[in-house]
Specification:
By secondary structure, the chain is mainly beta. It contains three helices and 29 strands.
Length: 451
């Protein structure tokens, strides 16, 4: 049973401004707030909420007694030590029965990350799905957070869209409908070292607006993590994004080396494009499918789901000119169940594992950013006009290289592709989804051409 959060506590001292803002913190005491899930302490000092870390405590949250649906939230947050990772729960949830009755806070959290990683104002799904918007997706925003100073956060949660700003910098944009309502929460993170007990995280000027909301548009072109099914926001469309898979049929795709879409094997059901399992062989059943269009510089996003032990891939710069048997030739973003498929242990130094540039460069990834078979992963592939290429897995950059560079050619020379002249250097090519005889599904395939 989930913890019930109801209307505003009458004792909470709030005041509404002429613009519709309501102060969530009265500057005097913690009326309207409660501490849950841990033993860290919160107190009011000179008009500031000061949270202090406690040894051997899990993450602790100061949460509002009221819940909110659509809102714009602004506050200031200060961290004074690297151990004091923090965050702001937006539409937060609480299960008091979890962790043997100690309670568990979960849901959307806007990060405060003082570490070298610098993912502040990125969006994390606390105690549930993990990172939704790591700042590898918007590296220009990594410098926005100021250690030892009060940082201004703005969070818009309107409908299924969540956007964040940090000190005026546009940071994260997530479209997700898992939680439509919840509390606002201020986090004091658990600490690893007992000597960090007493470290402070401070909050002030906490205010919220829930009526007559006027969303602030992003002026920059920022990648959107969009969890709607085969749909784009108006912002994405305005910035040149379009769907490569319409969610209804095979329009825009044909079989590799064919003039039509395969008559069997590939299917579209409930907005999901799936290649059926067959014999586990490479392009021996229905065969690969390719875009009718060719692309040169582009940003490609796609969601994929592996069945257990599956193998597939997204290939790019596929020219269909080699006349080879089996799968068409091209650079490949490897899709693989690393734990169960033998290909993960072949090649050199792991260069055939998930999200790798197949047989050339190993993806530098951590296990916690990989979703298991049966769950959806998010892939992203960026090819810049200068031939720099990036692979992302669930929002984290795992590969960067330059097509046609000497380093790239040296890798090709010791790979299975050495027999193909100028491999991977075509000026343009098709995008391919591979049939490797295993069941793999795709959705949310979107692309933007880059100039």
């Amino acid at each position: 049973m989930l913890f019930g959060l109801t209307a505003c506590n009458p004792s909470q001292e709030t005041k509404a401004s002429d613009e519709g803002w309501v102060e969530l913190f009265n500057g005097k005491d913690l009326s309207g707030w409660k501490t849950v899930a841990g033993q860290a302490t919160y107190e009011v000092v000179d008009g500031v909420i000061v949270g202090k870390a406690v040894a051997d405590s899990p993450n602790t949250f100061l949460i509002t007694e009221e819940t909110y649906g659509d809102f714009i939230l602004e506050l200031e947050l200060k961290i004074e030590h690297l151990s004091s990772n923090s965050g702001i729960m937006a539409r937060g949830q609480f299960d008091p029965a979890a962790r043997d009755g100690n309670g568990l806070v979960y849901g959307y959290q806007v990060e405060a990350d003082p570490s070298e990683r610098a993912w502040s104002a990125g969006i994390y799904d606390e105690a549930r799905r993990g990172w939704l918007y790591p700042l590898d997706l918007n590296p220009a925003a990594k410098s926005a957070f100021k250690m030892g100073e009060f940082n201004h956060y703005r969070i818009e949660a309107i409908g299924d869209e969540i956007k964040t700003w940090l000190n005026g910098v546009e940071v994260a944009y997530v479209v997700d409908d898992m939680d439509s309502r919840g509390f606002i929460g201020l986090q004091v993170h658990s600490i690893r070292n007992a000597e960090d007990a007493g470290r402070e995280t401070s909050f002030r000027n906490v205010r919220i607006k829930t009526e007559n909301l006027d969303p602030k548009p992003f002026s920059k072109d920022i990648f959107v993590v969009n969890n709607r099914l085969n749909d784009l926001t108006d912002y994405e469309k305005a910035n040149g994004w379009r769907l490569l898979f319409n969610g209804q049929n095979s329009e825009g795709w044909v079989g590799a080396y064919k003039e039509t879409f395969p008559e069997f094997g590939w299917s579209v059901t409930d907005g999901i494009l799936t290649i059926a399992a067959s014999d586990g062989g490479e392009s021996t059943n229905a065969g690969d499918i390719v875009t009718e269009e060719e692309f040169s510089a582009f940003d490609l996003g796609f969601d994929f789901k592996l069945s257990e032990g599956a193998n597939s891939g997204v290939k790019y710069f596929v020219t269909l000119s080699e006349g080879n048997k089996g799968s068409a030739i091209g650079l490949e973003y490897q899709i693989l169940d690393d734990e169960r498929h033998p290909d993960a242990k072949q090649g050199r130094d792991g260069n055939r594992t998930l999200a790798s540039l197949y047989d050339l460069i190993k993806a530098d990834k951590q296990a916690r950013f990989v979703k298991a078979p049966g769950e959806w992963n998010k892939g992203r592939l960026v090819v810049y006009p200068d031939n720099k290429v990036e692979h992302y897995l669930n929002g984290v950059k795992v590969i960067e290289y330059v097509r046609g560079s000497q380093e790239f050619r040296d890798l090709v020379a010791i790979s299975k592709y050495k027999v193909w002249e100028n491999f991977g250097e075509a000026p343009q090519g098709h995008i391919l989804l591979q049939d490797h005889g295993d069941e793999v599904s795709f959705k949310n395939i979107k692309i933007k051409t880059l100039n």
